[in-house]
Design goal:
single chain, 187 residues, mainly beta, SH3 type barrels, OB fold (Dihydrolipoamide Acetyltransferase, E2P), 3 domains, 6-stranded antiparallel beta sheet, 5-stranded antiparallel beta sheet, 55% strand, flat
């Protein structure tokens, strides 16, 4: 068993019998009161956020999590089928685990998946995706002075807000965590 001093952001703990992912972990010492740790955590089972306070020195069960690099193969119902590049095993991972970044994933992308034993408990899409724009209103050459954006549909079917000068058929880089346009990609 570990204590509250051993916890940091990104770790997994077992709290009240449920697996939780630590999102924020802060040490607080309010005035003349005793010090405590404020935790913001997400339950792995259903994705709900919870906040809790832990006393300094309280024992906490840290869960060992293995992170593997997998290759996204295809979509099957409510899951993505991914392959372990070392063993060639195929694993179904629920789309919800990828969050908003799931709509920017395409076949062949490398994803990071966290496992507790053999059970997948968390997944991250690649931080950036390079996708081709399939439809957007025609661009206006030289219109880079304003910060105005227009909607564009990319090859995965997702809609992204892009600058006015970006045209259909061009490739763009998207931040999968926020869903925002980053830059145009040449070639």
């Amino acid at each position: 068993m570990a204590t509250t001093q051993d916890i940091s952001n990104g770790m997994f703990i077992r709290y009240n019998g449920e697996l939780c992912h630590i999102i924020e972990w802060q040490h607080r010492t309010p005035g003349n009161l005793r010090a405590f740790y404020q935790a913001k955590m997400r339950r792995v089972k259903d994705g709900k956020l919870a906040e809790n306070r832990f006393r300094s020195g309280e024992t906490v069960e840290i869960v060992r999590v293995d992170v593997k690099e997998l290759q996204y193969l295809y979509e099957e119902g409510e899951a993505f089928v991914c392959m372990d590049n070392e063993t060639y095993d195929q694993i179904n991972i629920n789309k919800i685990m990828f969050g908003e970044g799931a709509k920017f994933m395409k076949e062949g992308d490398t994803v990071m998946v966290s496992f507790e034993g053999e059970q997948p408990i968390g997944a991250q899409p690649p931080p950036h995706a390079i996708l081709e724009i399939t439809y957007t209103e025609p661009g206006i050459k030289g219109d880079t002075a304003t910060n105005t954006l227009k909607a564009a549909t990319v090859e995965t079917g997702a809609t992204v807000m892009v600058p006015l000068f970006v045209d259909s058929g061009e490739k763009i880089k998207i931040d999968t965590r926020t869903g925002e346009y980053v830059e145009r990609v040449k070639g």
